[in-house]
């Protein structure tokens, strides 16, 4: 997959033209999937499939520090690659771009740079200066510039519109099963295993530690049943604690710690993808390590019950 990250000199070489899906695509959820399926369908017909999204970190109108996404840019790239998308664009949404006339976006980017044969958007997609660009404008310019517009209606599940905002709310409340329904896959986090206090092994519950990433949304602190994807493709199950470990931690830094069931290997530096399947309990301060350990063993039984039934 080709990945344009935070760069404006995009040029796609395509014989037949491209199919471009436009959107923020935070989460690549069940609603986004309808757009992505159109891209994949037209890719099979020989069009170059492009997912066009924005990197908004350089725009002064957003309080970037407060923005939290379901998936990081790296995770978006990983998912697009897994789906088989040809090109992922994360276009810099800087102040210059925010004030671009929508007609110029169509002619300069969609037509000249991406050679769009098809443009796929949701019903309420807005782009360009003051969001004046919309489905109507895309349709109006389609004849002259030789592309077709595919408009996708909002997907609903149990009568609720699937949206990134709704899914972020579910995640932050620890409602992992519901988040999974709307995402179409469990919420996951990813990163490289770092060293911790090496206390886990002394209580026979070693935990692979990941650091939280800036800009990523995390669920409420506590214990979760989890599924772990190791770098070599193996899939394991385990239990994950997100929190600042009040029982043993003095610096109160938040970490993500996963104990993998029936596993005994050194996996420091390895990249893990940890899917959080089900919330078990909130984090607590125990009177000592032996109380904590007893609770961890009980948590493991609950996790196994939820995972294996
Ligand atoms: C299933 C599980 C549940 C945990 N629950 C708590 C908790 O409620 N309170 C707490 O202070 N720490 C909790 N921890 C974190 C432990 O304190 C931590 O894993 C242990 O200190 C090992 O740390 P280390 O990886 O830095 O060696 C939990 C860890 C796991 C794996
Ligand atoms: N079942 C397991 N689950 C998680 N990590 C394991 C397991 N078995 C061995 N390990 C290894 O042990 C390390 C965790 O041991 P631990 O004593 O908790 O040290 P640390 O405080 O550095 O995380 C992991 O990073 C991993 O390399």
TrEMBL record:
Q: Where are the transmembrane segments?
A: none
Q: Pathway membership of this protein?
A: Cofactor biosynthesis; FMN biosynthesis; FMN from riboflavin (ATP route): step 1/1; Cofactor biosynthesis; FAD biosynthesis; FAD from FMN: step 1/1
Q: Does the keyword Coiled coil apply?
A: no
Task: Say yes or no: keyword Calcium present.
Answer: no
Keywords (alphabetical) are:
ATP-binding, FAD, Flavoprotein, FMN, Kinase, Multifunctional enzyme, Nucleotide-binding, Nucleotidyltransferase, Transferase
The Swiss-Prot or TrEMBL record annotates one GO molecular function as: riboflavin kinase activity
Give the matching NCBIfam families: PRK05627.1-3, PRK05627.1-5, ribF
The family assignment reads: Belongs to the ribF family.
Instruction: Tell me the protein's name.
Output: Riboflavin biosynthesis protein
The organism named in the record is: Coprococcus hominis
């Amino acid at each position: 997959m080709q990945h344009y990250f935070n760069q404006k000199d995009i040029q796609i070489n395509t014989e037949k033209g491209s199919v471009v899906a436009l959107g923020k695509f935070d989460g690549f959820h069940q609603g986004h999937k309808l757009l992505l399926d159109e891209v994949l369908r037209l890719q099979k017909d020989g069009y170059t499939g492009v997912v066009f999204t924005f990197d908004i970190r350089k725009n002064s109108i957003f309080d970037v520090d407060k923005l939290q996404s379901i998936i990081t840019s790296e995770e978006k790239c990983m998912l697009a690659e897994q789906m088989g998308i040809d090109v992922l664009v994360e276009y810099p949404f800087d102040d210059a771009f925010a004030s671009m006339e929508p007609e110029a976006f169509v002619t300069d980017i969609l037509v000249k740079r991406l050679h769009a044969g098809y443009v796929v958007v949701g019903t309420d997609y807005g782009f360009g200066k003051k969001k004046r660009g919309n489905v109507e404008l895309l349709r109006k310019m389609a004849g002259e510039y030789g592309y077709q517009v595919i408009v996708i209606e909002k997907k609903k599940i149990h009568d609720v519109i699937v949206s990134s905002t709704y899914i972020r709310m579910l995640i932050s409340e620890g409602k992992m099963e519901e988040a999974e329904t709307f995402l179409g896959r469990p919420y996951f986090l990813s990163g490289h295993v770092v060293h911790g206090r090496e206390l886990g092994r002394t209580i026979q519950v070693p935990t692979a530690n990941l650091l939280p990433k800036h800009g990523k949304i995390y669920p409420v602190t506590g214990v979760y049943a989890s599924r772990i994807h190791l770098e070599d493709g193996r899939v394991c199950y385990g239990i994950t604690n997100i929190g600042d470990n009040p029982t043993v931690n003095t610096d109160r830094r938040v970490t993500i710690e996963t104990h993998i069931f029936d596993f005994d290997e050194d996996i420091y530096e390895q990249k893990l993808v940890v899917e959080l399947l089900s919330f078990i309990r909130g984090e607590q301060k125990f009177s000592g390590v032996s109380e904590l350990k007893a609770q961890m063993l009980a948590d493991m039984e609950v996790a196994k019950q939820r995972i294996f039934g």
